[in-house]
Amino acid sequence: MDNITALGGDVYEIDTRMAGYSGITAGYLILGDRPCLVETGTSTSAPIVRDALASLGVGPQDLATVVVTHIHLDHAGGVGDIASFFPNAQIVVHEKGARHLADPSRLMASARMVWGDRLDTLFGELSPTEAERIVALGDTGAIDLGNGRTLNSHYSPGHAKHHVGLIDSGTGDLYVGDAAGVYLPQTGDLRPATPPPDFDLRTALDSIALFGALGPQRLLFSHYGPVDAVQETLERSAEELRIWVDLTRQAHAEGVDLDHAVAMVRERTKERYTALKSDDETAEQFELLSGAASNVAGIIHWLDRVSP
């Protein structure tokens, strides 16, 4: 299938074709004795992910574990559907996200407030998962991949209070979710993801530092794909966060409303990203993944909390 890329070490990247786009959200299959899916993508992507797993030999009875880095709908919106396609799989999530997978009603209501009618085309509906199938992680945890190989989770909030990074003992791959921002492989651009309501600068920088301290061999971005230049990329990730926060803080201090603050920050950062100078489709993809409006709103929400 043309949406599967072998990354070595029995790891396969699956393009979940979010909202019909390519290169927006990746799921990853670790194909060991106990096959494990990292990130499900959205609910509307779930059949695509199921078919990709089937083509890699993972049938309905074979998937052992599904892990999500956090419960935002582009990463975990498909959990309920994937759980029903693979009835033996345990569903692993940070403890702060577990109840929302069992009862998604509050999560879906707040998502609908943000996205309105676009919710259905972008994400679809997160279906509930039986509580007894959910494994809730604390600050650290280990997921058995079989043959002595483990996927070790590390609590990494800042982007979201229910976020974990996951490092594979077999490959040294670190699944960074959104905690290191959004990477665009076509252009090598990296941009932060700082949505409301959970963004917190200090916590986000601490999580990036933790990722560096874990000594990963490679970073696997949910948006999007593998990156070998680990330390350089994590440094860039921290730098981007600081720049967006500084610019938003300036705009906010000038007393402008949100729309004007977004326009100012967008204008002052656009030279940093090749994607915004390339074709419209790449620029649109980048904006969907790490929207300036969402980023600035999240930073302002945090500024109001820490220094009202």
Automatic annotation (TrEMBL):
Keywords attached to this entry: Hydrolase
SUPFAM superfamilies per UniProt: Metallo-hydrolase/oxidoreductase
InterPro entries according to UniProt: Metallo-B-lactamas, NDM-1-like, RibonucZ/Hydroxyglut_hydro, ST1585_MBL-fold
Classification via CDD domains: ST1585-like_MBL-fold
Ranges of residues in domain Metallo-beta-lactamase: 24-223
Record-level Gene Ontology MF annotations: hydrolase activity
Origin: domain of life: Bacteria
A Pfam family recorded for this sequence: Lactamase_B
The name this protein goes by in its record: MBL fold hydrolase
Organism annotation: Nonomuraea cavernae
Source species taxonomy: Bacteria, Bacillati, Actinomycetota, Actinomycetes, Streptosporangiales
